[in-house]
Amino acid sequence: MKIAVCSAQPYDRQFLLAANRDIGHELVFFETSLCEETQQMVRGFPAVCVFVNDRLNAAVLNTLAGHGTRLIALRCAGFNNVDILTANDLGLYVVRVPAYSPHSVAEHSVALILALNRHLHRAYNRVRNGNFALQGLLGFELRGKTVGIVGTGHIGSAVAGILHGFGCRLIAHDPQQNAECLNLGVEYVSLERLCAVSDIITLHCPLTPDTHYLIGTTAIACMKQGVMLINTSRGAVVDTRAVIEGLKSAKIGALGIDVYEQEGDLFFQDLSERVIQDDIFGRLLTFPNVLITGHQGFFTEEALASIAQTTLQNISIFERDGVCENAVTMELLR
Ligand code: NAI
């Protein structure tokens, strides 16, 4: 199948070309992200392969469908950037990679927790400047702390497995209880209770209309003084302005994020020569107790190989059968 690969970074080419060696799809790479302004670049491709910050709204989907596209292949798990209702109405089939080494994101989430609780990001810079003073680097131990996991699917349950090894008390909030988590002794509670008793809160739910700004002023007000908040799910699960207020009042004692509401304008590019125009992001960068990574949770060799393989398999299966088990169905929207 002829596939337009959007937002293609060098590593995407490397892993997709390797996975395609024995399959033989025709891959055409575009570095540019797909959005209304760039939609003409993929005219006439039967399959369009996209990533987290390509924006497939109704206008883009109409153009694609009008020019013969039949398949949207997401090379990620989340699908909040595609208007699924419109795609469905237009007969555009959408497939995704539901689980590709969830440990990649789970381990990154735990890395953020460990870096923040022992101030590694500050210690690294201090030591390089010849400053070996410990004042300000006082940490806390994870053993015995209560960690609240919001969303215990593939990634959240992997986080639970790792933190169980650290001796944490684990609680979770999820409309669906996960058997592996129950076996680990995870206790399911309401979001309010989770916020009230957790020393660390880590977010692993998808971005849906229900989870948009799930963590905002109300949730933050319920939290323990000095709570650590980790978000590696999607930026808009958190109201960033409310979090900034929480950081200023010290209600939030540490923040680790791999995702950001407006990350589409920033992440996956080298902007080091430019002035960042996003003042909210700029404010976040000023806090000593905030650690930000640029959506790299998925970025391991194992995950990239798995994403490339599943993406091309999804396309082959759709080409052969017209359906695929990794389709984004209307069921997933509920
Ligand atoms: P999953 O579908 O296996 O699990 C998501 C869980 O969230 C499910 O158990 C679901 O019941 C639960 N959930 C849904 N609504 C909820 C709510 N209102 N409150 C609490 N829980 C709720 O998804 P998976 O693979 O674990 O991924 C989770 C999210 O992580 C993805 O949707 C994506 O946004 C993000 N992600 C981030 C990556 C990164 O590089 N930072 C890479 C991959 C995924």
TrEMBL record:
Q: Which UniProt keywords apply?
A: NAD, Oxidoreductase
Q: Give the PROSITE patterns listed for this entry.
A: D_2_HYDROXYACID_DH_1, D_2_HYDROXYACID_DH_2, D_2_HYDROXYACID_DH_3
Gene3D superfamilies in the cross-refs? NAD(P)-binding Rossmann-like Domain
Domain named D-isomer specific 2-hydroxyacid dehydrogenase catalytic: which ranges?
Answer: 3-328
Please report a single Pfam family linked to this protein. Answer: 2-Hacid_dh
Q: Where is the D-isomer specific 2-hydroxyacid dehydrogenase NAD-binding domain?
A: 110-297
* CDD domains, alphabetized: LDH_like_2 (cd12183)
> Where on the tree of life does the source sit, at the highest rank?
Bacteria
Xref: InterPro entries: D-isomer_2_OHA_DH_cat_dom, D-isomer_DH_CS, D-isomer_DH_CS1, D-isomer_DH_NAD-bd, D-LDH-like, NAD(P)-bd_dom_sf
Any one GO MF term held by the record is:
NAD binding
Transferase listed as a keyword:
no
Q: Does the keyword NAD apply?
A: yes
Which family would the database say this protein is a member of?
Answer: Belongs to the D-isomer specific 2-hydroxyacid dehydrogenase family.
Q: What is this protein called?
A: D-isomer specific 2-hydroxyacid dehydrogenase NAD-binding protein
Q: Which organism is it from?
A: Nitrosococcus watsoni (strain C-113)
Taxon lineage: Bacteria, Pseudomonadati, Pseudomonadota, Gammaproteobacteria, Chromatiales
